[in-house]
Amino acid sequence: MIAIIDYGVGNLFSIQNALNHLGISSCITADAAKIKAATKIILPGVGAYTDAMRCLEKSGVIPTLTEQVEKGIPLLGICLGMQLLYEKSSEYGETKGLGWIAGVVVSMHDTFTRDLKIPHMGWNTLLFKKDDPLLANIALGSDVYFVHSYYIVSKQAEYLAVSEYEVEIPAIIRQKNIYGMQFHPEKSGEVGLQLLANFAKI
Fold first, then answer.
1. Judging by DSSP bridges, how do beta strands 40-43 and 2-5 pair with one another?
2. Is 184 a catalytic residue?
């Protein structure tokens, strides 16, 4: 059973529909007992970082999520959910994140020098950095669907794949049992479904 964390932010039902399509059992929940019973956890997220952290704190799930991550339960952050895994964001000043991975979230508006469309929205190509079971059966040059205006800056040791958009945008990350996808796998066709299936098998 995969627990999809319900804290009032994210495409919960789109993710669950994708898992249902794959025949993977899941539940949408903020209940500590159900989260602890899950074999995997997905942390979704869309919108503003500050609002998401506030909702996450209000939901009361952070201690349970931290406990499960420390136990080695695989957790996948999607889009904003991936950004929340890091230390802080510059969105609307500075907001602390979960701090499970060293790194910060910065604005494309503040850091890009070329006149590129922001948000980074649409299909972009995955460029692999490391081999990993999460990437099983994903072909070189596969495209996935992004919608974001902020991106991760870190030491890059955890990057499994990036996409180029002026700079290398971390697209898939892993630190031990913590995974992240900056794009939306549930909107990324067969490639996204394969990535979700791979996560379920980890």
1. parallel
2. yes
Q: Which of 21, 67, 186, 190 is catalytic?
A: 186
Which residues, including other chains, have CB under 8 Å from residue 126's CB and lie 6 or more apart?
138, 141, 142, 143, 144, 161, 162, 163, 171, 172, 191
Active site (annotated) includes residue 79: yes
pLDDT in tens, the chain (202 residues): 999 999 988 789 999 999 999 999 999 999 999 999 999 999 998 888 999 999 999 999 999 999 999 999 999 999 999 999 999 998 877 999 999 999 999 988 887 877 788 889 999 999 999 999 999 999 999 999 999 999 999 987 789 999 998 889 999 999 999 999 999 999 999 999 999 999 999 9
In the numeric block, the tokens 């066709």 are attached to: 189
Query: Which segments within 44-158 are labelled E, that is strand?
Result: 75-78, 86-89, 95-96, 101-107, 120-125, 127-128, 143-148, 150-153
Whole-structure pTM value: 0.95
User: Domains (ranges, CATH) in the chain?
Assistant: 2-201 (3.40.50.880)
Of 79, 91, 148, 158, which one is the catalytic site residue?
A: 79
Q: Does 120 participate in catalysis according to the annotation?
A: no
User: CA-to-CA distance for 168 and 65, rounded, in angstroms?
Assistant: 29
**Of the listed 91, 120, 148, 184, which one is catalytic?**
184
